[in-house]
Amino acid sequence: MDTKKAIAGAIIVASLLFSGFQIFTSTYGLMTALLQRSIHLSFTLVLVFLFFPSMKNSRATFLIDIPLILVTIASGIYLYVSFEDLMYRVGEPTQLDYLFGVATIVILIEATRRTVGYTMTLLGVFSLLYCFWGHLLPEPFGHSGRDIDRVLSQMFLSTEGIFGLPLGVAATYVFLFILFGSFMEKSGVGALFINLANAFTGKFAGGPAKIAIISSATVGMVSGSPVSDAATTGAFTIPLMKKVGYRPTLAAAFEAVASSGASLVPPVMGAGAFIMADITGVPYSTIIIHAIIPSIIFYAALMFVAGNEARKGHMKGLSDAEVPSKKDAVMNSLRLLIPLAILVFSLAVLRVSPLRAALFSTGIIIVTTLVYNYFKPELRVPIKDLVDALIVTPRKILVVSVACGTAGIIIGMLGLTGLGLKLSDILMTAAQGKLLLALIFAMIISLVLGMGLPPTACYIVMAVTAAPSLVQMGVPLLVAHFFVFMYCCYAPMTPPVALAAYTTAGIAGCDPFKAGLEAFRIGLSGFILPFMIIYGNPLLGFGSWYDILWSFASALVGVWMFSIVLVGWYRSKVNILWRILLAVGGLALVKPGLVTDLIGFIILALFLLTNLAVFRKKAAEPVAAE
Asked: How far apart are CA 462 and CA 424, in angstroms?
């Protein structure tokens, strides 16, 4: 018991120091990138070994984890103390550089195994092995070989390896936005947004599913973790969906898809927007503007499916007694809607630095919470919960930071050996110069990698491997990066390893694999969308305002048609022939173009006219019988 208390105390102290360091360096304590990232990683690794012991419930863990923690701290101190000296002997590591460099790399790989899993761990290990022994491989994979001096200098003594761009993003933007999300969470964001969504959609058919969609999109865009988002909001929304008649597998699927797509929602995009901005060189404010239309189409498609499923099952909305008044819901949610609105306004309109916007919005949360504590005691949030936000944030950043550190090893290897350019050539050769084939390959790789990696880490890998290939084939830079990023986000809802669906299946009490298949079915419109932005750039906000507006409107009609295809219902059961025709029409409308739009609208008009005639005939039958 004393051991557990000691570990808990160490976690609290380390977490508070970590949060304090991040806030300090984001405001007044600016530091050199290498130093700031190395200290961030040191805090991260210490907490990893405290949160993820080598052997649970055993004192023997101290024989392994305590030494790892001590070496981690020593390595961080060494880099800090000898930083100026390092700058004068770049490329000429000393014995101590070897010692702490190798130790840090080994410890990072072990931390990756404990937190992210074996996929990222093996990618990191193979990257290191490839640096040393890649010369043994035949062309086009072989290279001339790299000695330990070059590998160590790249990976440990520069910002081109472990302490590279991915870790830099995690140590700045990601941490502060997760801190913002933690304060939102501790202030009751889940219950408040569910209550708000309930007030506006609860009475409609499929209302509980729409509540799940809205609340998951809002909460998940900040958390950036489909699995944790699904677990958090799913605890409230899945029982509601089951209550009004949704099958358990369907309830689990809606929550999984809504949580997976949350990383597409601006302004935060689960930290993806920050990394995309740094990798592409496109301003952050520009990226979030381009993300607006795809995210609306994704969630509109999901809403359409939810409504059709509800009508097919003859479900009703919640009763008046179960739906709060809109006025009360809005007033109770203001203390969190105000900070969120300020965040969006600061980023999209004022174009304030993301760091400043996140810090300022977090401060607004604290102020509004204190005001509500005074004027609305029934909504009181204990001050202890706000302090807890500083403690829980480091726990949430661990997986992202460790994955980004190991991603730095992979990126360092690609730059050191030239494999990055070779992979682009290999992908282009395999695709035989055909863009469609290259897109399919990139999609498959993104989904497979995403099954074992968090969306952010998966995107980093794809951004430096597959995206450049697409750019070489003529795809605009930002479009190529959105393409791979979207599929990295979809992986948690993709069978056979649909982690978000497996999580929600546990809450719904259903078969995880069946929940994954349902998630794939109802989210199929989202899987088509990345191809549509490739062939129709206006869907990503490129082109004249008329092209953008028309493409957006026709795409919404297209995904509505596609929702009928996926459910097989519109007023009554839709036969297979009409479902095939509607699928063709829906795809035609989603793809911008005069001819495709004409095809889509003709099919839609024929379907509606036929359906209306059948509906009138059925309505007239009882009258005729009399």
From this structure: 11
One DSSP character per residue, 276-318 reads: HHHHH---HHHHHHHTHHHHHHHHHHHHHHHHHHHHHTT----
Distance CA 237, CA 197 (A): 11
- The residues, any chain, with a CB within 8 Å of residue 464's CB and separated by 6 or more, are 279, 410, 411, 414, 420
Give dist(CA 104, CA 45) in Å, integer: 10
* Residues 199, 34: Cα–Cα separation, whole Å: 49
- pLDDT, averaged in runs of 10, over the chain (626 residues): 77 93 82 90 94 74 85 93 79 85 94 86 91 84 82 88 85 82 75 72 72 76 72 78 84 90 80 82 86 92 89 76 77 77 76 79 86 80 86 86 87 83 73 84 86 80 86 90 92 82 85 88 90 88 88 90 90 88 88 84 90 65 48
**Burial profile 428-438: b = 16 or more Cβ within 10 angstroms, e = fewer:** beebeeeeeeb
Residue 295's DSSP bridge partners are none
Closest CA to 372 of 162, 192, 500, 230: 192
| 3-state class (DSSP) for residue 569 | strand
**3-state SS assignment for residue 573:** strand
* Residues in the chain, overall count: 626
Residue 83 corresponds to which amino acid?
A: F
Structure tokens at 372: 């509500």
Q: Is the dihedral of CA 147, 152, 157, 160 positive or negative?
A: positive
pTM (global) more than 0.85:
no
248-294 pLDDT per residue, tens: 999 899 998 988 888 888 877 767 778 888 888 888 888 888 999 99
CA dist., res. 470 & res. 428, Å (int): 8
What is the C-alpha separation between 218 and 211, in angstroms, rounded? 11
Q: Which residue has the tokens 């948690």?
A: 492
The pLDDT assigned to 38 comes to 93
The whole-angstrom separation of Cα 265 and Cα 224 is 10
